[in-house]
Fold:
Amino acid sequence: MLNYTIRRLMFAIPTLFVISFIIFAILDLSPGDPTGNLPLTIPPDVREKIRESLGLGQPFPIRYLKWCQQFFVNEPLNLIENWTGWTIGDGERLRVTSWSTRSPVVDLIAERMPQTLWVVGMSYVVAILIAIPIGVISAYRQYSLFDQIGTFVSMVGFSVPTFFTGLILIVVFSVNLGWLPSVYDTTHKVTDWSSFWVQVRQMAMPTMVLALATTAQLSRFMRASMLDNLNQDYVRTARAKGLRERSVVLIHVLRNSMIPVVTVIALGVPAIFGGAIITEQIFKVNGLGALLIIGIQGADIPLVQTLTFLFAVLIVFFNLIADLLYGILDPRIRYD
Amino acid sequence: MPDGAEPILDVSDLKTIFRTRDGEVHAVNNVSFSVAPGELVGVVGESGSGKSVTMMSLMGLLPSPPAEIVGGDIRFDNEDVRKMNPTRLRALRGGDIGFIFQDPMTSLNPVFTVGYQLIEPLRIHLGLSKKQARIRAAELLALVGIPDASKRLSDYPHQFSGGMRQRVMIAIALACDPKVLIADEPTTALDVTIQAQILELIKGLRQKLGMAIIWITHDLGVVAEIADRVLVMYGGQVVEHALVKDLFARPQHPYTRALLETLPRVDGAREERLRSIEGQPPNLSAHPSSCPFAPRCGHVHDRCRSENPARRMVSAGHDVACFWSPPNAG
Structure:
């Protein structure tokens, strides 16, 4: 298993370089001008100077290699300096810098990360906690009233987009009932119980909107997986051994059914970091999704390049995690 | 086997139906039989004749709905199984009655070790501690002929061959010293050499442990080799019941006779083609009002189509559900 992990990590390096190059090439080919949002009164030759100052005057391969150096060498060194307080070299090096804000991209991401992790991550946890019991019960009592309601709610969660459910929730809970705030206050700090309660209230709606969509998907997955296993011969064996029905379902069947579901859950984790672009917009959560949208609109190529590449890293990494979990949960799979 | 011994399992007039969306299926119709301690009863019949369903339903192993026992009496050790509460029923399953299933490749849970699956019934029914259960589990594996038993406890089912997995299944069934062992086509999925090994194993265990065995099979050769008595099932009912030597010497029911004729013979001239029984097993959508074998029977007459024959005695310990008597009867 360790050998396999190391081999996969080694393979990930060239993969990620290729991905970073493709992202860079696509962004370079895409139309969009970083000076496009500047006032029209700026004369063309000044605009050209601005572009050159951003490094756009250099040829494509040089720009790519410079980004690589900034991202793979300078940024990690900078992180190490911040954590340890050491100074490596003269401490002066060029970081990946946003064109529109002129601040280092990594700092921008670090600023936005907590909101996204709180809201989107919490919605994922809530979704898993709801979806697994629903899936288990729906499968065990197939075609019962519970299963029918679960199927209906899942269909709604699947088919109704978040910008619709989000607005419905705002109309009901913020406008009509006035229970929950419709805007997420990013600057809110949790210091005591009452401010924690404020945080919970402002998280409630975006979390629920996202959790509904994820629950719909995961519970269907769980149900299908349970149904696959409930009719297996080993379940009959477990019953013939005189086990309680609860042990049969929650030990023998669930353990087998979790194998594909855990994989799906692991593969979904990178999407948390990606943020929920639409939901973040609706509830004004200043997360990574919102950051990416701003970057795209302003043709802020370093920002978009770095964010997209980080998502790619997470996807590659969690693919590996999913494969390893598969190997741990299913003894028939061995990676040697 | 001794005559007049108190039966350990006594089933009379068992009726099980499946209520499906397309109507009812009468899978088990008035099946009666009994097994005494130490006896080995073979149950034969073609696919869909209700052999497995009978055994599964009397243990409550069929999913309900759709399956439902609508009539009959099941007594285990003079205790009414149908009136047992769920706790007692669970103690019966795996504790007093062991099961071996047909396909050893799928009957073990792939994600748990063999040891775990073997220890489970020991802990529930006998209340052993983990340590004691592990020792006993290793003994059981050794008993069924698995070498290096205590080491193999931590192996997973996929690390065993088919024959070895069936041995594990047998070990699980025997874990709590059951009084009755129900073996549902335990050798069907195995090749003949492994089949012979498993038969030898069961014969030996039966002598050693003295339990009653119900052996479901569609292989008459296996029955001839190991059974004391035989039940022949057709269309969800018992059509003939006899001591094994009586059944092979003087088969009464046309179906039994046809089954025996399908066996290729070693002596005599080789036939051009293997014999088979023409026609299909009956559709069981209603309670039988005629003999279920009538459409395929060579000795059919009008009464067979209007009345379902009851089991009648032909000699001591030999009964048949048929109006017709073969010419050599006696």
